[in-house]
UniProtKB/TrEMBL annotation:
Superkingdom of the organism of origin: Bacteria
Database matches in Gene3D superfamilies: Met repressor-like
Protein name: Arc family DNA-binding protein
InterPro entries the record matches: Arc_rbn_hlx_hlx, Ribbon_hlx_hlx
Length: 51
């Protein structure tokens, strides 16, 4: 699958139980796991203003 010019891929290693928990939450929110994690990061309170 191609990645846009303004995006990059990373490898993320998670404990299996955390991945399972995130997957369940993603399904409840009708999102893919990748999109769910991205959404959590983009909406984080620690994210700098304007980014």
């Amino acid at each position: 699958m191609a990645v846009g010019k303004d995006k990059t891929r990373i490898l993320l290693t998670l404990p299996m139980d955390l991945k399972d928990e995130l997957t369940k939450e993603a399904k409840r929110d009708n999102r893919s796991l990748n999109n769910y994690i991205l959404n959590l990061l983009l909406n984080s309170d620690r994210r700098p203003e304007g980014k």
